[in-house]
Specification:
The complex is a heterodimer of chains A (about 500) and B (about 375). Chain A has 10 helices and 13 strands. Chain A has about 500 residues and is α+β, with helices and mostly antiparallel strands. In chain A, the strands form 5 sheets. A 4-stranded antiparallel beta sheet of chain A has the order 3-4-5-6. A two-stranded antiparallel sheet of chain A has the order 1-2. In chain A, strands 7-8 form a two-stranded antiparallel sheet. Chain A starts with a helix and ends in a 6-residue tail after the last helix. In chain B, α5 (about 260-265) links the parallel β7 (about 215) and β8 (about 270). The two termini of chain B are about 30 Å apart. In chain B, α2 (about 45-100) runs antiparallel to α3. Chain B has 3 domains: about 20-35 and about 330-350, no CATH class; about 50-215 and about 265-320, Up-down Bundle (f41 fragment of flagellin, N-terminal domain), CATH 1.20.1330; about 220-255, no CATH class. Chain B is rod-shaped, with a radius of gyration of 41 Å. Chain B has about 375 residues and is mainly α. Classes of the chains: A alpha+beta (about 500), B mainly alpha (about 375). The interface between A and B is large, with 69 and 60 residues. β11 of chain A pairs antiparallel with β1 (about 145) of chain B, so a sheet runs across the interface.
């Protein structure tokens, strides 16, 4: 080895220790940075020279390592997509539950009970005009409460739709950024630079994209990634394929004519430039879509079925002439207060003639054929409340069947309770799933942190280690200096 | 496993957050007294709560209906009692009047009493308390005949002919007082007074009154035959066919006419009148028996109503307690849980305060 060879190898040691300390500094500084991946310097010892019995020539190379486990990333992203889906479902379903699952008295369920109670009251005192007015008022309360709930549900859909638009914007922007980062990382790494911070940034975007859209990631050797939404690539290396959204009238999704009129203006999501629907299977957007297109419409339909059936049955019983001998009229009509019950959802109202004159409410079983002028005033059937009693008894008549109760025949109260119970179970399930998903995500995050997170203890230990290495190398330098001092300044001075 | 500062702080935060949520839920429960406010918190209990609430609404209506039925049945029963008393009095009066020692003057003196009884009977039959005619069936209001302007109460009496007419109908008002439980509220008047029966109680009382008011024809000269030819038909007043009415042959075809409203009001022999009243006593008694039977029917209804009242009250208590069970919070348990949650929360805070700030840096010089 040459005279100054050792100085060079010690210098490489000093250099390496300093760079290692810099890395420790970077790690400590980013200990609390979200999505930061800890880095470490790996040293490669230089080979010795060809001189016999020579030690190595110090440190040849330093590599910056990035502690990241792709498998854990994949696990985290799958779980967070699942969590995104169920969190969204739970949050939105609780809105729906606020509307129809409240247990306090005075809600829609009470108006239904009071509607039947008012008919019962009329049956007891048919001559009392206040009882007739009460029937009309309570029917109005019933219809208004049902309509309010129906509108609230429609609003839940509109709000979900807005959220979908915002989230799709986020997805498209994230996809664009990822494509950009792919480009940057590839060009940097090919030039031998490190792009660890860019990779961290990209990983953060991939995380949030997974939660939003349930995407999966394939990484390539050149440092870029391809992101799949379902089976379609949404980012392929340098290119992003955004999801298109367009606002359009929701098409009829059901042959049932009763479903026609809750058509709303909703966003349809199509694959980049095509008319194929974008395949959202899991993640927040899928949760919102399921809620908007399946869950809420179902409850709207149940509610409509309930009100429509009650109205139809009341009309069937309310089919006698009134006390004045006027021909029979329907109690419930289309929304405007005239015409037959409509096909559309909640196209229902109280006959305007009855609203104007509650005496047109029919309570008597049989009203004799009208004579002109009437034989007596009031007519003989004035105190007959049998028809009102029959209507009041609808309360316990099994007139409803179908979806929330299956093939069972149930009364209106049971049907309404089945709707609420059904929803309650659904919310409870969603809560359970979202809680377990959160736990899984937390677990996966923990594993990931365990690999990638910065531990201050580690860093402190390394700091001491590298500091001491630096000290030792410096001492070595001093020693070499002293040795050279001897050689340069002391040799040849004997006898001076 | 490698554990970093971030892992520790984030898991501590998660745990603290969960504890806080639990504390919030528990303190909500304790302060509101309700274990659940939404169905999803406990779908089974939620379904129970909704069912109980709905049953409570029905129960409220059943109680109203029962009270209404009660007022009808009690009023009807009381009125039937009044009518029984009236018939008793009428019978007493008839007995007195048909007594062998009763003179024409005695009967005359009794006549206003009989008239009063008739008025009272009509008033009782047309009773309008508590809510419309008790005995009108579905006709509970006074109807005005649009053609003649006549007032049609439940019962109307033609005071000249003694003919009573029932203007009501056979309607029976029903009230639901429980699940598939129905009670009848009223008793149609046709069951009390059958206006097609000539021996109904109103007709009997009218006859009694009329008989008492009818002047007696005397045998002044004591020849055993009646002195007067009241209707001046050339035939002495007598009762040949012994039907207690004066014989009249208005169309002179030598056949005695059937008794008419007019002939009922004709003067008669004392014996004929006494006989008539004696017959009335028996008929009044049979009417009284009928009313007593009806009254005991109402009595049976009263017993059912009282049983229903007790059962509805019991149901109400049961509903309240099962609502409490389904929705209510067990205060002891909730407070204990709350205390536990608070203790755990404090412990977690302390542990966090001790562990989190420490790193190796604290021990390096």
């Amino acid at each position: 080895m040459s005279t100054f060879g050792s100085i060079y190898s010690v210098r490489s040691g000093l250099d390496a220790a300093r760079r290692a300390l810099e890395t420790v500094g970077q790690n400590v500084a980013n200990a609390n940075t979200h999505g930061y991946t800890r880095q470490e310097i790996s040293h490669v010892a230089a080979e010795p020279s060809n001189v016999i019995k020579s030690a190595g020539r110090g440190i040849a190379d330093t590599l910056v390592l990035r502690y990241r486990d792709e498998f854990l990333d994949r696990q985290f992203r799958t779980r967070s997509a699942f969590q995104g889906f169920h969190d969204t479902m739970y949050a939105q379903l609780s809105h729906v539950e606020e509307v129809i699952g409240d247990l306090s008295e005075g809600g829609f369920r009470t108006t239904l009970d009071q509607f039947f109670n008012s008919w019962d009251n009329l049956a007891s005192r048919p001559t009392d005009s206040a009882a007739r007015s009460q029937v009309v008022t309570s029917a109005q309360d019933f219809i208004n409460a049902a309509k309010a709930i129906f509108n609230d549900l429609a609003n839940v859909r509109t709000e979900a739709d807005e959220a979908i638009r915002n989230k799709v914007d986020e997805i498209n922007s994230a996809a664009g950024q990822i494509a950009g980062l792919n480009q940057e990382i590839m060009s940097r790494e090919i030039g031998g630079q490190t792009a660890n911070e860019l990779r961290d940034q990209r990983d953060r975007l991939l995380d949030s994209l997974a939660q939003l859209a349930g995407t999966s990631v394939v990484s390539h050797n050149d440092g870029s990634v391809t992101v799949h939404l379902g089976s379609m690539p949404i980012v392929d290396k340098r290119v992003a394929y955004p999801v298109d959204k367009s606002l359009a009238m929701e098409p009829d999704r059901d042959a049932d004519p009763a479903l026609v009129s809750y058509q709303q203006q909703l966003t349809s999501l199509t694959w980049n430039g095509t008319s194929n629907p974008a395949p959202f299977q899991t993640g927040e957007v899928a949760g919102l879509l399921k809620l908007r297109d399946q869950v809420v419409p179902e409850y709207m339909k149940y509610l409509d079925t309930l009100v429509r059936t009650v109205a139809t049955e009341v009309n069937n019983l309310h089919n006698a002439p009134d006390l004045g001998g006027n021909a029979q009229i329907d109690f419930f009509t289309a929304a405007g207060g005239a015409g037959p019950l409509g096909n559309g959802h909640m196209d229902i109202g109280i006959n305007a003639a009855i609203l104007a004159d509650p005496s047109k409410v029919v309570a008597a079983q049989d009203v004799p054929a009208p004579a002109v002028p009437p034989a007596t005033t009031p007519p003989p059937a004035a105190s007959d409340g049998r028809r009102a009693l029959a209507i009041a008894r609808l309360r316990t008549s099994p007139i409803l069947t179908g979806a929330p109760v299956g093939t069972q025949q149930v009364d209106p109260g049971q049907y309404l309770r089945a709707i609420s119970s059904n929803l309650g179970v659904q919310v409870q399930q969603a809560l359970g799933l979202s809680e377990s998903a959160s736990l899984q995500v937390a677990q996966a995050e923990k594993h990931r942190q365990s690999v990638s997170g910065v531990s201050l203890d580690d860093e402190m230990a390394k700091m001491i280690q590298f500091q001491q290495t630096y000290n030792a190398a410096a001492r070595m330098m001093t020693t070499l200096d002293e040795m050279l001092d001897v050689v340069v300044n002391r040799i040849g001075l004997v006898g001076r | 496993m490698r554990v970093t500062q971030q892992m520790m702080s984030s898991s501590l935060l998660t745990n603290l957050n969960q504890l806080r949520q639990r504390t919030a839920v528990l303190s909500d429960q304790v302060s509101s007294g309700n274990r659940i406010t939404r169905v999803s918190e406990d779908p089974t209990a939620g379904a129970d709560v909704m069912r109980i609430q709905s049953r409570g609404q029905s129960l409220k209506q059943w109680k109203t209906n029962l009270n209404d039925t009660k007022s009808w049945v009690y009023a009807t029963e009381a009125k039937l009692g009044d009518i029984t008393n009236l018939l008793n009095e009428a019978k007493e009066l008839a007995l007195t009047a048909s007594n062998g020692t009763a003179s024409d003057e005695t009967r005359k003196a009794l006549a206003p009493g009989a008239e009063q009884l008739l008025t009272n009977l009509m008033a009782a039959l047309n009773e309008k308390e508590p809510n419309g005619f008790l005995f009108g069936g579905f006709q509970t209001e006074t109807q005005i005949d649009t053609a003649t302007g006549a007032r049609l109460d439940a019962f109307s009496l033609n005071d000249v002919t003694g003919q009573v007419t029932y203007n009501g109908d056979a309607g029976v008002m029903q009230r639901d007082v429980g699940p598939r439980l129905t009670l009848d509220a009223n008793m149609p008047g046709s069951r009390v007074v059958d206006d097609s029966d000539p021996d109904n109680m109103v007709a009997l009382l009218w006859e009694l009154k009329t008989a008492l008011k009818t002047p007696v024809i005397k045998d002044g000269n004591g020849d055993g035959s009646i002195d007067t030819d009241t209707n001046a038909d050339g035939i002495a007043d007598q009762d040949l066919n012994n039907d207690l009415y004066i014989d009249v042959d208005a169309n002179a075809d030598s056949v005695i006419d059937a008794p008419t409203a007019t002939s009922k009001l004709m003067p008669k022999s004392e014996a004929a009148i006494v006989n008539r009243i004696k017959v009335l006593v028996a008929k009044l008694d049979s009417q009284r028996q009928n009313v007593i039977a009806l009254r005991s029917e109402m009595g049976a209804r009263q017993i059912r109503i009282e049983a229903m009242e007790t059962s509805l009250q019991n149901t109400e208590v049961k509903l309240e307690s099962s609502l409490e069970q389904a929705q209510g919070v067990d205060p002891a348990k909730a407070i204990l849980d709350l205390t536990n949650a608070q203790t755990t929360y404090q412990a977690a805070l302390q542990v966090g305060a001790r562990i989190l700030p420490q790193t190796l840096a604290d021990f390096l010089r």
